[in-house]
Write a structure and sequence with these properties.
- By secondary structure, the protein is an all-beta fold.
- It has no helices and five strands.
- It has a three-stranded antiparallel β-sheet with strand order 3-4-5, with no helix packed on it. A two-stranded antiparallel sheet has the order 1-2.
- Strand 3 and strand 4 form a beta hairpin.
- The chain starts with a strand and ends with a strand.
């Protein structure tokens, strides 16, 4: 889990970004010698948050498993 505080002091080309939290999870298992299986889930709660403080930015990608 990562939490980010509200950015109260944006740069001259940025906007104020609200605080947010992102929940990720992962697991792995070694199957044999050099073979390992890993599964990740990102942004499990599927919250939208800004990708950057740039005023023209788009929301970061939604949660996905890989």
């Amino acid at each position: 889990m990562a939490a980010y505080a509200r950015d109260e002091r944006p740069g001259p080309t940025e906007v104020v970004v609200p605080g947010y939290a992102v929940l990720d999870a992962g697991a792995g298992r070694r199957l044999s010698g050099g073979l390992e299986l890993r599964v990740y889930a990102r942004n499990i709660l599927d919250h939208a948050y800004p990708a950057t403080p740039d005023p023209k930015s788009v929301p970061a990608p939604a949660g996905a498993s890989s």
